[in-house]
Amino acid sequence: MTNKYRKIRVLHIITRLIPGGADENTIQTVVGLDKSRFNVDLVAGGQSDTTMISRAAGCRVILMPDLIREPALFRDLKTFWQLTRLIRKEHYHIVHTHTAKAGILGRLAAVLARTPVIVHTLHGVTFHRTLSAGTARLYRILERLAARVTHKLVTVGDHLREIYLAAGIGEEKQYITIRSGFELARFKLSEAEIALRRRKIRREMGLPESACVIGSASRLEPRKGQYYFLEAAQRLLQDYPALHFIIAGAGPSAQELRTLAHSLRIDRQVHFLGHRTDIEDVMATMDIFVLSSLWEGLPQVLVQAASLGKPIVCFDTEGACEVVHGGENGFIVPRGDVSSMTEALFYLLAHPQQARLMGLKGHRFVGQDYDRAVMVKKIETLYNRLIKRSGPGFRLSRRTAQSVKKRNDIKMKKTRIPNEYPIKR
Fold it and tell me: Are residue 222 and residue 172 in the same domain, yes or no?
């Protein structure tokens, strides 16, 4: 029996793959896992972005069109059945789920299929404060039930773990914090390099080198709260008419936000850049970074802004306090409070030298834990430890290995491919 069939078989499941923190975390993990030791598959829902899917190199991507973000009883039951069938057929040693819907359905399917190890990553709060009381209560109940069959709950930040424990979800020993990693070196730039990229982007945008630029970067959707940012921009422009504002990102709210900027009569000063692959360059051109999200897990863009030495103003979303230390490298203001956000930005504009020094202090709050290689290594270590605890039964029996090999050989010949869900090779 070849070593290929003695690898640890891992299945990651996510509700959808779109440009965002949870999705980047998942892609970085499945791509980064050591393929000499792990055989990795990824299930993604029907609302996924094709560009994101194409980045999952080195693993098989299984698309399940009925796995969608919105509640849909029939489609959810169908997805649950498909996941259970897939996990049973492929004999995964580890099922690792991400995001709310995939986290509930995937973990329940995994326990029904008797998967040895079940892991779930918490990327944000599913029962956040913007939900109705009844809906939030339902999510807490579902999370408590799913936690009972989960061997390890991975949180991207310590604050998130505290929130879930306070809600009675799981036990403290189930939790481990593994920070969401990215290419940290891209953002750990020297002051000279930041200045160079700042000039480059400003030339492209036609912005004066002396202009003060306040920016934000996130997916354009209601929960990111960019409309609060635009309201603050309108108030700031009354006293600082030469200000410019940058909003980087794409999403379903793009046109609505452009319309709002026009109705507020600030569209000439607000620059919508869409999705950018050079986000470190775009953020380098900002003098102040703003995050107006209503709920998060631990916002990766805050870590990136701190790495680039930018003073930060953000709402008191989950995880913000782990990156922004009030008065040291920025300000955290009450969620949804435009007046407090505007006041904090007024202060930074009125004290530019202090704002610059505050930004530079942000470097010390960003350690190597945020590097993607460190994140992947910690996940591999976690997998190995959990597999050892599960006992010697994790290894494929000879009969199971032969069955898996036979199915893979058939797939390679393209004579028999399951038609209940498409597979991207």
Answer: no
